[in-house]
């Protein structure tokens, strides 16, 4: 029986035998080995049954790492003593604070309302305000057994528990050597076990759903047909299998994911950041497997067939939980891409460095992600320091039984439209230097219980690409890999499709703030220049060409970025170099030029357009198009120096309808201003820069 099936059947609870990691072919959960229950109970200084009361992100003293502080309400003790049952402080790595976020793979994330068993040790990090007093889960994710208070079950990585009952607590007490002591009643668990008066409730049925396969986190809608769902949702919900544990547990769709709910049909978006049985998110993606509908009467029905989630895109949630958005990459180096730097120990391990670079090339040459390896880094520090570091750990920096992890650093900003944009500002990777890795290129040996390093590097780079876990064997982003298994090749319909969707929808576009758009690999530069009498010359360059069949040049005029005209095609050459294309027949006014990379499958990847004016220095501040029929007013604004500009929109009665303060760089800017919600009619746009220059222009909103 495979471990995945064992998990679904509730097998392997609190076993005292060898861990899964000790058996050839055992599965790893995204670079995490099973932690033996005996080891966890012995190493933990404190074992409690508790509820998470809150979550508050904070910076450490040097502002390099985000942590999250939680208060726990303790219901019972299974090891150790606590003086305060409502103010026990627990710290987890990563967190959210304002518009900054840090998310670590293989690392516990908790949400208020979660309950379970916590195996706690003293928080080891220096430079945090609660150092010496706070606790952290031993083994991070494996230091917490999460309760499902409705079903009276529990789960953790690698194990499920079919019942939270007296036998469950006796087994825990046998491991800790201390009898359970109840400090206060757990009312949530008591309420779930209380038997109320019998009610006659018609059970719902799930007859079918469509489509049978779709992605998570893209807004894709699943339609569920059946009967008995109820005429309104009320407290009803839809659940998907949890991709982070191979489908052993369910996760709920968020409140904002529901499109419609009737007695016979439910339409719901498939989430990549779902609720793990809670009213708030704790980050699990929906995965492949059966789906379950629970009505407002709390009667459930499960589908007879399985949904396939082909890929899941990472999403970022705002601190207050009101905004969920897919983050985009931005260009962080002079080549329009992202440079990784090896820490000293990693750079010194030539086989490890070679394996990691092969993994990078796998993504670069199949999705067009513009990654490269830069100069070695001076340290192996994993911190918010502007360096994308790949390193081995030094001592016990990683949690117990965690072989490696990826940290994504996000920053939010406000685009001119008013939208909050979250972008990836840094990525770090850290691996355990004592793990039994086979660095290749030879395959790992199952007889020696080797773990293929290139396979896990490809998987972790998928997280860096902003892809979440899948419950889909055959995909690199499948949540687990076996000891001795090779998983170095991307699945075209899953990993490649998801990676290209991340790039095309967000990262290759200019979203108004956060930094310049990525250039699609193998491109390293793109520019456009107008010379009177000669026309417009486009220049670009490539490096290490792969996943490329040629280039297409397009132009549009009058600011209409929907009416592109193809000017010509340019053949590619290997290994690449410098390219040039001249457009001699240039119309007047504001122009956009777009370079498109032709891929071997016939698809095209767009470079963010270059904008220029044939009027040169005489370009004026103007609105285009005018009248405007969509929700964005575009303003051509030439700036002789870097400045800040206030834009105000007034209606025909002189009432202010909108106001924005924007920082603009030197050159010709095209500023998008949101006019969503403005009624059709005549408006006036006023502007004033930091030097006191002012002006106005009328426009018509259709």
From TrEMBL:
Keywords: Hydrolase, Metal-binding, Metalloprotease, Protease, Signal, Zinc
Domain Peptidase M10 metallopeptidase: 428-497
InterPro entries, sorted: Ig-like_fold, Ig_E-set, IPT_dom, MetalloPept_cat_dom_sf, Pept_M10_metallopeptidase
UniProt keyword annotation of Hydrolase present: yes
Secretion signal, residue range per the UniProt entry: 1-21
One annotated GO molecular function: metallopeptidase activity
Span of domain IPT/TIG: 204-281
Presence of keyword Signal: yes
Protein name: Matrixin family metalloprotease
UniProt organism field: Hymenobacter ruricola
